[in-house]
Every structure is written in C-alpha cells, then in structure tokens.
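Quarterly update from the structural biology core.
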Amino acid sequence: MKAPILTTDRLILKPLSIEHLSQDYVDWLNDPEVYRYLETGGNFSLEILKEYLIKIVKKDIFFWAIHKLVDNMHIGNIKIDPVNLKHGLAEYGILMGRKSEWGKGFAQEATECIIFYCFTQLNIRKITLGVVSDNVNAYKLYKKLGFIVEGIYKKHGLYDGRYCDTIRMALFNPQFDNL
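Predicted structure, tokenized:
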C-alpha cells in the first residue's frame, strides 16, 4: 500500500520520505504553536526526525508530504493510517507545519484530495479522526467538509497544561448509503 503522488490545483502530495528531512521540518515539530494539539512534538533533532522518517518508509503507509505546486515548498503532512480494508475504515491525520501558509485553504484542499482518493481508489466506507475540542479551526474545517460528531472522549488528553475533550468525527462515503 504505497502512497501515490496526488495533485490538486495548488498542491502536490508526495509520499513522505527521507528526502523530507530538513531543519524546517524539525523546527515545525519543536514549535509549540504547531504541535499544540498533536500527540508528538518538541525535543526533535535532525537525527530523531531521520529515524522517524526511516520508520515511516518501512511501514509503507499512506503518508504524504504536502507541497505547494508553484514552488515545491513542503508545508505539511497528511496521512491515512491505519487502514482497515475489510471494514472499509481509515483514520485521518494532518499537520500543517509552515505557519506562513496557515489560513490559505491548503489544509482543506489537501484533505479534500485525500478524501476523494480514499473513497474512489481505496473503496473506504468511513474516514474517522479525533480533534481536540479547543482546536476550533480544525473542528470547523471538518464540519465544513461534512464530518459528523460520533462521540466525545471527556478530558482525554493533556494540552496546554489542562485536560481537554477529544471529539471523534467521521465522514461516510455516499456510495455505501444503500448498504
């Protein structure tokens, strides 16, 4: 299950690889504003990132680096993992690392591309995600894309020194509506 190269009007999504090892990427992972609602972050070095990227390549999962088409700038990552083809399920995650590109619609564009890929190429029935309740911008994006709330894990994770709820959301593939 190798992630293919995908393109949109403004983006190219390339399989995440060791070629993405950079100080910029390390800086994203060490920026509290970037990793604020992520499970990982802080205390990264080039060596730690290199080990992580090698591990990702070996896992052979659907994990893409998001690049701007115009200048090939790496601005974030997006993944679908795990994927359960038997049940038609996939878990979504995204990191928009380059703060200068925030608020320009790139997260939505990349996400729409991945949803289309999952629904049409992988025959995924349901895409799920977890979003920290305080991450209002991400929650609004997911609602705009059609994700629905399936449940809330109360005080599930520690963010900014306090326990926050995690909202579990899902998007269903309409081609499975009659099953």
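The helical segments are 23-29, 32-35, 46-59, 106-120, 136-144.
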